[in-house]
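Final report, results section. Input specification for complex C-07:
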Amino acid sequence: MKYELVMGLETHVELSTNSKLFCSCGGHGAGEEPNDCVCPACSGMPGMLPVTNKKAIELAVKAGLMLNCKINRYTTFDKKNYYYPDLPGGYQITQYFNPICVEGSVVIGDRTIGIKQIHIEEDAGKLVHDESTKTSRVDFNRTSVPLIEIVSKPDFRSADEVIEYLETLKSNLRFAGISECEEGAMRCDVNISVRPEGSNEMGVRSEIKNMSSFTDIRDVIEFERVRHIDAIERKTEVLVQETRRWDEVKRRSFPLRTKETAEDYRYFPNPDLMPIMIDDAWIDEIKASLPSTTNEKAVAYEAMGVLPKEAAVLANDRSLSNTFDTLIDKNIAPKTAASWILSDCLALMKKQGETTLNINTDKLAEIINLVESEKIIRDNGKKILAALFENDIDVLDFAKKNNLYTLTDKGLILATVKKIIAENQAIVADYKSGKEKAFTALVGRCMKELKGTADPTLIKTLLKQEL
Amino acid sequence: MKFFTEIDNTGNIAVDDMILVKDIHATAGSKMLENFVPLFDAEVVTRIKNAGLKLAGKTAVGELGLSAFNGNENDIPCDISLNVDLNGTPRRMAAVSDKIFIKPTYGTVSRYGVIACASSAETVGVTAETADKCAEILSLISGYDEKDGTSLPTEKYVYNTNKNVADMKIAVLSDITNKASEEVKTQIEKTVSALNSKGAEVQNINFELSEAAATAYTILMCAETCNNISRFDGVKYGHRTADYKNIDELYTNSRTEGFNLLTKTVILYGSDVLSKDKYDTCYDKSLRIRRLIAEKSDEIFENFDAVLLPAGSSFEIGETEGTFENMVKEIEYSSIASISGNPAVIANRVQFVAKKFDENTLLSIAKSL
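Structure output:
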């Protein structure tokens, strides 16, 4: 029998706010040393009350709009009760009864993945286990850092779809400035079941908690697929609805708890936080701040004649696409702009260890225009760009001082061409016997003699004429 | 006369031990917090200090302010104290000791820096010898506080005792009054006569929902308290057991040793009503009853300026470490104002409740008696 996978994802990402969800401590667990980014509120001291970070609400709405969700005009925060040392209050503030966004969708390839809801919640702290003393210590820096959980419908049928969905989410969220989605900061719970192909019934579900590496996600899906099919066909085990964890070393999943032993989180509305009303004006304001999604950008760039692969790279990075858009506004041809950004700027960024492109676009356009109008050859343009990456140079002045302008003195070039022909009779003979490469060699030698500053077209013309 | 915790013998105002004062022990009457020293002042303390008043000391409370009585009415040597009204205890204590106590409308006084139990109901109020003093101090401590998400937006409230009782219509809640002791009923009758003699019109009505209010309030209060005090787990501060081998034992033994029987009962009751099986029939239903009580109150206050009812079942002071049953019995008298968030005043050893933001009616009645 043929089987199909049925999967749903719960994806947690951190919101890019300057402060925590309910206090003014720096966001993103900003501390360097353990517990240096905590206050009485986020460390669970008595007497402290939560005050909602408006920016977090705004970013969650933004995520909802981006994922085609309905924004709930009335949204509430609730308390989820459980004891764990990294949870200082003994409860987590989350959205259980009235999540901020519902009923959205994400398009991947030719399929649409439904989004059930997006809700906001606070992160927990971190336990540090010390094997030598057999003790555990708690670091509250991450406590109350704002997260959104994006809950998909059980619409995935393959690991490829899951990965493509996660990559799409990641680039869209980064692009809109909603989340940095840094390495490991995007965490998923994967719900997996298997059923005979064509069936409408749901199989027994396993939930694999806390996955972040795409490789692990791919592997756990395959592991679970085989395990479920083996259980159905060969009765290797009786499947039960359970929560499992992935063992990165053993490369297999293990049961954590079954449905019967599942905790009752005793959710209830948080009486310390008033319901939040989101009106149309606020939504419109957030909508206006929304960039076109990367997917739309990529399509637009392709339509301008940029290669699909290049368009995708440009669209996926906000700093690159912003630079590209600015160059287009300055009347640089799309293909030319893409080439300068993707080959030259990216290489220089890599060399400097930068992850975002931060360059004076006026000066970049000036360099490109000098090359395009053949006043400077491309290689020299690169040299100026490299200098611009180091210092805020004056482009024309730098080119002049470093002799980077293209030599157009016909007399001097002609004299050089004549000299090279005289000195390289063997190559000239090769050329005359039909070897095309010999011509290129002669051009190279002329160029070298003129220290690389001459107009190559002019050299070629004069060389042909003299030969 | 002595305070539970002495602060300054030239001081003129006390706060109870649920209210945080920077660097002064805040025990909340519990072994769990016997060594807890807060890092900051409650907002009401800041406002008191900013007004140039000095704190004399802290008065004792029953553990977490849960019990119906705190047995320390003689503990207040100065005229004024700020008390957290959770289960109506300061109202009951004012009735017993014949003081004025005003519980303002929920949301008018910041709860920042108050050790939280029932977040949706508890309110800081003022105990004093006179209604004018209550009005003066309440004016100082009330008004919007950005640090409290439930604080109402009005920047400043001004309270006074200037209303004329002769213009008022007051309803005695007969059904609740009839449940109280003879001594309390006599006190209600005396108060009615006094109001009549000032020209007020007094009528008897039945509230009908007082048992529902008490049950719903108890459910909400226990659930919220159970949740709020789960932070006292022996991990970060407060009492930690000496006897543990793993984290579960640390939690269980610290809390077993740190809390008294009443608190433990509240925790069990609160956990139960929030469980999946009972959420709809207990917790959610209580939220609906809360709305019902608010509607019923609004209806009454369309026709009356205030209602009159006992502050408690008797004038006897119960034990500080009271029982759950006793707490629930007394809650019936306090729950109407607690669950609706309406203001209440204790004067002449009885309780008056008015519509939201109408503290001045209550304070004026108090002054007239």
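The radius of gyration of chain B is 20 Å. The first helix of chain B runs from residue 43 to 50. This concludes the modelling results for the funded period.
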